[in-house]
Design a protein that fits this description.
The chain is an alpha/beta fold. It has one domain: Rossmann fold. It is built from 6 helices and 4 strands. The protein has a 4-stranded parallel beta sheet with strand order 2-1-3-4, sandwiched between helices. Helix 1 links the parallel strand 1 and strand 2.
Length: 145
């Protein structure tokens, strides 16, 4: 059962743009947030914040009903987004690599992760696919129950 959606990805991938689409399309029945478990793991790594295996496992175990939506975009597109927003650029390659690596770890622990490239898909297209996945997963769960 999907009870929460966390939108993840490095800066400028479109997380905040996607929120209102998902909120509207879900009928405002599923809590949606930007940044969550995946960002916690990535930024703890980036900023050398130590977490014990027990802390990490506790975070993961509390998130099995969370769907992680991981957004990416191509390098050139992200560079343009940083320039046009006036924000300080980040190391896009290393950030993206960490998000991908940790997302694979979370999938291995049974957490659902959907990946979308915002250079290729609109927020509407992404939200449609996410909500279709949520509906299928939740209906499957209800049938098993």
């Amino acid at each position: 059962m999907i009870c929460r959606i966390e939108i993840e990805g490095c800066d400028k991938t479109g997380k905040d743009t996607l929120v209102p689409y998902l909120d509207f399309m879900s009928g405002r029945t599923i809590p949606i947030s930007t940044r969550g478990l995946l960002s916690t793991l990535v930024y703890n790594n980036l900023y050398n914040r130590d977490m014990t295996d027990k802390q990490i496992n506790s975070l993961i175990n509390g998130n099995h009903q969370t769907l992680i939506v991981l957004l990416t975009a191509n390098q050139q597109d992200l560079e343009i987004r940083f320039k046009t927003s006036g924000e300080t650029p980040i190391d896009i390659k290393s950030n993206t690599k960490l998000f991908q690596s940790y997302s694979l770890i979370l999938e291995g622990k049974g957490i659902n992760v959907l990946r979308f490239d915002t250079s290729k898909m609109t927020p509407f297209q992404i939200a449609t696919e996410v909500m279709t996945f949520v509906d299928l997963e939740n209906n499957k769960e209800m049938e098993e129950y």
